[in-house]
Amino acid sequence: MSAWTSDELDRIGRAEELELTTVRSDGTPRKPVTIWVVRNNGDLFIRSWQGQAATWFRSAQVRPQAHIQSGGIERDVELVGADQSLNEQIDAGYRAKYMPVAASYVDPMVSPQARATTLKLEPRS
Q: Does domain 6-123 have CATH number 2.30.110.10?
């Protein structure tokens, strides 16, 4: 796997949303979904506000690969289960980034159901 560049981290981390295209088990792309993304140090994280019921999340559990577009960046990524010890930091990232623009949506993003779906985006070569 390759690493994120500083420019990619900055641009995706500042972007309000991320377009995520997961992959079906046969390798074909699903319909893209728009979700929130937060940066924590040198990593990028996503969550499902619908918890494990979201189609994109269930797809990621079967085949943890996706294509992302955000902040003018396009990359193929691996969707890796996040270290749960980072949840407080990731929650803080969601609150800091999204509370000013969409406060009513932040609570679901920091709920136990959403926390259980936290995935780290790792760029693929």
A: yes
